[in-house]
Amino acid sequence: MLGRLNHVAIAVPDLAAASAVYRDTLGATLTEPQVLPEHGVTVVFIDVGNTKIELLEPLNAQSPIAAFLAKNPSGGMHHLCYEVTDILAARNQLQLQGARILGDGEPKIGAHGKPVLFLHPKDFNGTLIELEQV
Amino acid sequence: MLGRLNHVAIAVPDLAAASAVYRDTLGATLTEPQVLPEHGVTVVFIDVGNTKIELLEPLNAQSPIAAFLAKNPSGGMHHLCYEVTDILAARNQLQLQGARILGDGEPKIGAHGKPVLFLHPKDFNGTLIELEQV
Fold first, then answer.
1. Model ipTM?
2. Which CATH code of 2.40.110.10, 3.30.365.10, 3.40.630.30, 3.10.180.10 fits the domain covering A5-133?
3. B contact test, residue of A4, A48, A81 with most B CBs within 10 A
C-alpha cells in the first residue's frame, strides 16, 4: 500500500527565517511561500531531488500546527506524507487492520489539490502519517 | 549542498512490533534487523521507492537514541539524512555559516559504511540532520 515518500513536513515558527536557513546555510532551492487558508498554514516547498521538504508556518492560533509549535517552540518534524494509488481502498484496509483515521475518515483536498487522509500517530510509533492519492 | 533525502529515521521502543505495523498494516517491505553495536542500535530499513525509512531500536541505555525514547516513549521521527558529495567541504561551509556540528566535528562511519556528520537541531528548527557522503 505504502508508495513513495511525497514529502517530510517540518513545522516552523518563522517561515522567512527557516527559509533563509535552508537557502543560505544548506544551499537548497525553495518555492515562493503559498498561503493555504483552508489548511491554516503558509507553506514553502524544498525540492531535494527524490522528494520534498515542506516548511509549515501556522496562519493563526487555530491552525492545526499551532498546538505542535506550542509544545515545540523552535519547530520540528511534523508529519510524513506517503503516496497511495487508491486512498479509499487504503483507508478501508487500514481500518480493517485496526488503524485509526483522523477526523471523520473522509479524504480532504490537500495542499497539492489531491485527496489526503491523516493516520493517528499513536498507531504508528508517534509518527503522524499523511496519505495522498496520486 | 543539500542532496537527496537518503532516509528518515524513526526511533521505536520495540523494533519487532514496529516492523509488524509497517509490514502488516502498511504493506511495506522491510530488511532483516541489523545489529550495529558501534552505533548502539538495531536497525530495519524500509524501501519506499524514492527513499528509505530507518526504524531504530536502542541496544542499551547508553544508545544515542535512548534519551529520545525516554522523552517520547512510543517513539517518533528522530532525524533526516541528506546526501552530500563532499562531507568535509559541506562541514567547512556549514561552520562558516555558523552552524554547529555535533561531537568533535569529524565524520564517523555511518550505518551504510560511509562518512556521516550530524548537525545541531537547534540550528535547523528542531530537526536533527545527518549528512552522508555518497
1. 0.95
2. 3.10.180.10
3. A48
